[in-house]
Amino acid sequence: MTDRTDRSDRTDRVVPEAERRRRRPTKHGTVLSEQVIVDTALRLVGRHGAQAFTVRRLGLALGADPSAIYRYFHSTDDLLLAVADELIGLALNGWRPTGDWRSDLREVGMRVHARSLAHPQAAVLAAYRTTGRANEIRAVETMLGILRAAGFPDPDAVSLYHAFIDQALGFAVLDSAALALPAQAQHADNGVWDTAYRDLSPDTHPHIAATADLLAADMRRSAYPLALDLLLDALAARLPARS
Fold first, then answer.
1. String of b and e for 10-46 (b: at least 16 CB within 10 Å)?
2. What is the dihedral of CA 23, 29, 34, 37, to 10 degrees?
3. How far apart are CA 28 and CA 141, in angstroms?
4. Top-level CATH class of 8-74?
């Protein structure tokens, strides 16, 4: 994720929005904006992975000189944080709370997971970063609001939010990393359940032998929905009784 054009002194080169608007389209007919750059970067990260992403490659995709991108972002890392924040925004787009805390949290968790699987390369990057940007702040505010409105005391609301989001992002990384593997590697990994595990003798591995068919089917899908429901059950058990 290195780029010779990405230097620490780029921080001082970001200029205000009104001054950085490009008046003419790029070579590809694109008028640059933060959103256009982030959308293109998200596509490139999905195609090449975060480790292979460079501002030079992004400039080629936009038909713009790489230096133009630094009018919008401090550095390559600043841009990748914006990509991570965009994933959060995409997960929340169109969602509205219902007032049922459990249903609302489940829907948010499933949306985060689904959006991660739609952009597995970017999700692997996004899950362990703290962006401090608008979408992340909105997500934190929303989920804390759900928990506090449900009746959880503030210390519990914070710790339960922490457990909830770490579970969601942890599964996002795990499942996205599997999807980001080359197709041949994915097929080989899935095939192990049909070969190595099915061939084990009930004399030496009675429990695996008894459940081999179930293992082969279940291990091909994400455990996140079940894990999420188990967490929500645990949250409900800790909810203080309303007087």
1. beeeeeeeeebeeeeebeeebebebebbbebbbebbb
2. -150
3. 39
4. mainly alpha
Q: How confident is the prediction for the chain on average, in pLDDT?
A: 86
Is the pLDDT assigned to residue 133 strictly greater than 80? yes
Helix-helix angle 224-238:154-180, to 10 degrees: 180
Instruction: Return d(Cα 44, Cα 36) in angstroms, integer.
Output: 12
Q: How far apart are CA 203 and CA 57, in angstroms?
A: 56
Fold of 99-238: Tetracycline Repressor; domain 2 (1.10.357)
3-state secondary structure 162-179: HHHHHHHHHHHHHHHHHH
Q: Where in the chain is the domain with CATH 1.10.357.10?
A: 99-238
Residue 208 contacts by C-beta under 8 Å, 6 or more apart in sequence? 197, 200, 215
